Amino acid sequence: MEWAITVAAFLASAVEFVEAFTIVLVVGVTINWRSALIGTLAAAASLAVIVAIFGTALVRYVPIDVLRLVVGIILVLFGLKWLKKAILRYSGLKALHDEEAIFEENMAELRARGEVTTSLQPYAALLAFKSVLLEGLEVAFIVITFGSNAASQACVTQCGLGVSARPPLEQL
Predict the structure, then answer these.
(1) Distances in Å between the alpha carbon of 129 and those of 11, 50, 144?
(2) Domain membership of residue 93 as a residue range
(3) H-type helices in the chain, by residue range?
(4) Would 83 be classed as within a structural domain?
(5) Tally of domains in the chain
(6) What is the rounded CA–CA span in Å between residue 57 and residue 73?
(7) Which of 9, 68, 106, 112 lies at a 20 to 30 A Cα distance from 61?
């Protein structure tokens, strides 16, 4: 039974790492790597502080069954919201996003204002920070509810895969 928990924690953590890594990769490729890495490092430091302060206290003073129930309810509510959006988009009741057109429009605005540079872009750093922080907090809850070994394995595996995928993705 322990292998099933390990596999579930690994896969759940891997999904979160892929989401965070994808956003950081997009920020690095489209805006600049300096902003992406500064935001990522700031989020990692913030996560370390948050986990150090609240991680032990949360596990020590909140019963694990209550924590699992609360996290489970939150996940179900978010999942239902995303499912509703997907059904509305698939049925044609909600417009599909043309992400490439939106991105090109935003980049054209930035170029017109002369804001596309190789120096630190605050919005790019903030985007990387928020994505890594959010996905990291999700991994922290996965670790609390399932176990820590699989989450660290997922991090190492996904970071390795992401770094190896960077050169071909930059050519797109």
Answers:
(1) 23, 14, 22
(2) 17-167
(3) 2-30, 33-50, 56-61, 64-91, 99-112, 122-145, 148-170
(4) yes
(5) 1
(6) 21
(7) 9
Residue 5 lies in a domain: no
Q: In this structure, what token pair is assigned to residue 94? A: 């909600």
List the one residue out of 141, 157, 126, 158 whose CA is nearest residue 50.
141
Are residues 20 and 132 in contact, defined by beta-carbon separation less than 8 angstroms?
yes
In a domain, 79, yes or no: yes
Q: Note whether 36 and 129 are within 8 A (CB).
A: no
Closest among 67, 16, 61 to 43, alpha carbons compared: 16
Of 137, 141, 123, the C-alpha closest to 49 is 137
What pLDDT score was predicted for residue 117? 62
Q: Is 129 left (phi over 0), alpha (psi -120 to 50) or beta?
A: alpha
Reading the chain (172 residues) residue by residue, the pLDDT tens digits are 677 777 777 888 888 888 899 999 988 888 888 999 999 999 999 999 998 888 777 778 888 788 778 877 887 888 888 889 889 988 888 888 777 788 778 778 877 887 666 678 888 899 999 999 999 988 887 777 775 555 556 556 666 666 666 666 556 5
